[in-house]
Amino acid sequence: WGKTGHRVTGHIAQNHLTGKAKRALKDLLDGHSLAYVSTFADEIKADRSYSKFFAWHFVNYPLDLRYEDSDKSEHGDLITAIEECTRIVKNKNNKREDRVFYLKMLVHLIGDLHQPMHASRAEDKGGNSIQVQWFGEGSNLHRVWDKNLIESYGMTYTELATELDHLTGKERKKVQEGTIYDWVQESHEICANIYDSAKTGDKLGYQYGYKYNKVLFQQLQRGGLRLAKVLNELFE
Ligand code: ADE
Ligand code: ZN
Ligand code: ZN
């Protein structure tokens, strides 16, 4: 996601933390919110010394396979990255500075896991090389999902988060079920559908937004509630 998608995810998660997780996060993040730190992993991309983390933002494998059955990238991927972040943050013997760094990465990566074009295929770089128009302006299928769709609402991240955070306790529990392998499979299946929905040169606008607004909002809502679950378990 772009900034707004990550902040919506962080803002929703913030409302569903246990007391223990809240205290641990307050300490490690120096009082900053999850929404605030959620974009850190993109900010460090400008610094070449962090280039090894580029491959951590996505995972590509054939659309008809599950992650577990696919060949893995030698550079790591979104799934191995989430596992590594979890491991480092969990271990209190690690340096505080490292635990903070990987915690901020983790907050971001759970967001990306729910952007369908981040659980994608390699041929077109998760839709980055599929050029389309968005309301008459140049874009690509990846960017449509990172930000064009979200920004078309003209709402702030707090407004969007409030709009999406309306589930009952029982409904939230249901969304929080499963593992990162289940969650990446959901994103991957949505991604396959998205590839069928548009081809190079298509002019996308109102119709496309209307077709996908439920899917978009569902993925943001899932990302937020599942981030809360991951953090609650991490600091149990
Ligand atoms: N580069 C290659 N694949 C990508 C993907 N799925 N998302 C973002 N950038 C990528
Ligand atoms: Zn992206
Ligand atoms: Zn990212």
Automatic annotation (TrEMBL):
Cross-referenced Pfam families: S1-P1_nuclease
> Which InterPro entries does the entry mention?
PLipase_C/P1_nuclease_dom_sf, S1/P1nuclease
For this UniProt record, give its keywords in alphabetical order, as a comma-separated list.
Disulfide bond, Endonuclease, Glycoprotein, Hydrolase, Metal-binding, Nuclease
Recorded hits in PANTHER family, A to Z, give:
ENDONUCLEASE 4 (PTHR33146:SF26)
**Name of the protein:** S1/P1 nuclease
Q: What is the lineage of its organism?
A: Bacteria, Pseudomonadati, Bacteroidota, Flavobacteriia, Flavobacteriales
